[in-house]
Amino acid sequence: MIKEIPHKAITGFTAIPFLVVAQIASAFALYLALSNYRFALAALLLLCFVVIFVGWFGFFMVQPKTGRVLQLFGTYVGTVTAPGLRWAIPFYTKKAVSLRVRNFESSQLKVNDSSGSPIEIAAVVVWEVVDTAEATFEVDDYEDYVNIQSEAALRNMAISYPYDQHDEGAISLRSHPQEISDALKGEVQERLGKAGVRVIEARISHLAYAPEIASAMLRRQQATAVIAARAKVVEGAVGMVEMALTQLSERRIVDLDDERRAAMVSNLLVVLCSDDSAQPIVNAGSIY
Fold first, then answer.
1. Closest C-alpha among 204, 217, 214 to residue 174
2. CATH 3.10.20.810 fits 102-209, yes or no
């Protein structure tokens, strides 16, 4: 595995004066050698002039948050990350690799969750390159690699959890967004680590049941919500009835036998649990 090697290239503003002076000096020396008919020296000076001239092609620009991967005849030399005008041997190939933070939004994937229900899911992955050597040499195209592996990780994560929470405390895609995001981030990072990429954040951007079961699942969710609401209403009504009977008994407002107590409990539960408002009936006679 190839790891990034920092390379300190010469500042361009330092190399420019040196090349200017060397170019002028070699040209002047070549002129003198030709004037004195010293052709052997002139040939050597001409070679120096050409070498210095080729040196002008060694300048390159490094943008902020960008790395330049240097190679010499196929051999990795190092990476220049210091921004500005730089100079290196002209025979180096200099490939730019962006170190900026980037987003990848996956397409809407259709998968089955852990309970077998078909769902549609998509995610957003925030990532950056942290090792330019691995990103360049370990994979063929690191951007395409990020896209494919992120979707593969999303599929694998989606089939590991149910869409909805069926058991108390169980993690589901809909009810535990933070836990699901952490799991997705770990899944994606495990796959992209070999490409010199660090995952900053991974979150689900779209989550829904597949169209063919969406209506049935909506009725199921509505039924579950109604049952939960009814259970809460009944729990509160029972508490209120218990409180009413206790206070009636403690304050000795009225003494009720078991039959009348049961009738009062029934009436109170009907009033408290009914969806419609109760219609009062005035009883002017004896309760017995």
1. 204
2. no
Compute the distance between CA of residue 8 and CA of residue 126 in angstroms, rounded to an integer: 29
- Res. 178: pLDDT tops 60: yes
* pTM of the model as a whole: 0.68
The CA-based diameter of the chain, rounded to the nearest angstrom, is 144
- Of the pLDDT bands very low, low, confident and very high (cuts 50, 70, 90), residue 262 is confident
Q: For the chain, which residues make up each domain, given as ranges?
A: 10-73+80-95, 102-209, 214-273
The pLDDT tens digits of the residues spanning 108-158 come to: 888 888 877 888 889 999 999 999 999 999 888 899 999 999 999 999 988
Pairing of strands 102-105, 66-72: unpaired
What is the dihedral sign for C-alpha 248, 252, 253, 254? positive
CB-based contacts of 254: which residues, under 8 Å, 6+ apart? 248
